[in-house]
Amino acid sequence: MANKPFNAGSGKSFTLRVEMLNEETNFVVIASAICEHGGDVVAIDMIQTNVEKTIRDITVTVQDTVQIDRIATSIRALAGVQLLHISDRTFLMHLGGKIEMKAKHPVQNRDDLSRVYTPDVARVCMAIHDDPRKAFTLTMKRNTVAVVSDGTAVLGLGDIGPYGAMPVMEGKAMLFKQFGDVDAVPICLDTQDTEQIIQIVKSIAPGFGGINLEDISSPRCFEIEARLKEELDIPVFHDDQHGTAVVLYAGLINALKLVKKRIEDVKIVVNGIGAAGVACSNILLKAGCKNLIGVDIDGAIVRTNTYQQDSWNQFAQRTNPNLESGSLADVIKGADVFIGLSRGGLLKREHVLTMAERPIVFAMANPTPEIAPEEAVDIVAVLATGRSDYPNQINNLLCFPGIFRGALDCRASTINEEMKLAAAEAIAATITDKERNSSYIIPSVFNPTVVENVRKRVIEAALETKVARRVPREYRE
Length: 477
What we know:
- By secondary structure, this protein is an alpha/beta fold.
- It has 18 helices and 14 strands.
- The strands form three sheets. The protein has a six-stranded mixed β-sheet, covered by helices on one side.
- A hairpin with a 3-residue loop joins β2 and β3.
- α7 packs across α16, α8 runs parallel beside α9 and α10 crosses α11.
- The chain is globular.
């Protein structure tokens, strides 16, 4: 890990279709043009050839999309070569969208038609009318989640609007299905008005068993989630906040075991008190942390100050018991844990050197962490990031499929703090004492046991806290 180059993005693949005049050029010239701009040829496919010309598909990987343009320009300048087409595999995967709806039962004759639609469906409609709870058993509500966004805080792209957000929401729906067998519907709203969003979600809620809020900017996301949780009787979960918090706490459980420290005894500094920062702090406080300090653009958040954001005023009342003030450089002194939910480059090596013995650093800003792993790996006990190309990735995918699978299976009315803590503990427990090490505190998202472990613990917590409205068969006496 210490010797690994730090790249701004993971490898990207695309395919060039080129036509070469056989008498004027050869493939070596094209390969040289690709390699000159940092491309790596991984596959060559013959499409068509004759005496005069040859057409090939050349699959190339690069680290940066800028390289694609440079390679294309270079090839177009070659004598005897025509660049016919560039196929970006990512764009090809998105053609027509990434998800579709399929019928569970074929309609092959008039009898089938009468059962799925009129006239027989009327009996099902009236059964639900007489007892609305039957919607959970007689409609798709029992296994369907709405993935709702207004496109104001999409990944690291910011406010790109509902159209730009749609590919991300489709991707989220795919992950729900593949990992949790939850049917999810992407819903991108063309409004940023808090009241309108709340009313729209409330209006569509009868068709869903849960609501996953996604990529809604702070501080509006706090009010939207709080109001919907209060006014709906199905789970409402803002994944940017709570998914991050659950997986972070899972990683911290194992990190603290490695350094032989207890959460009750450590000093934790959280840099970046937006939606995710508040949620991560909340779960750590719920888990027993007694000395947590939040830092944002103006320095440490202290309850003796008054802030424009109400969420910060509330945060201040529950944190920083010793009223530490100043910049990140000031309050990180003696800290056992640093949690970054801000932007790249804010944490310096000299800051880490002032932390407590065997410090833990979770630098989760994307795509550039608060500190480059190469700068800190030799002076920290455990390092985690939000990136997939380094060990210990804090990835929400470890959390939301299992949480919603469990919540739907027990028909929970909400996802409470106890359920989130249970999910984090389940993720952490996936790694055994023998397996746990500084580069392995978080299981892989492809670990097949994670979703089921999270599901079981979430159901148990829901039953214990009496928010479950159905006892799954395996929990019945």
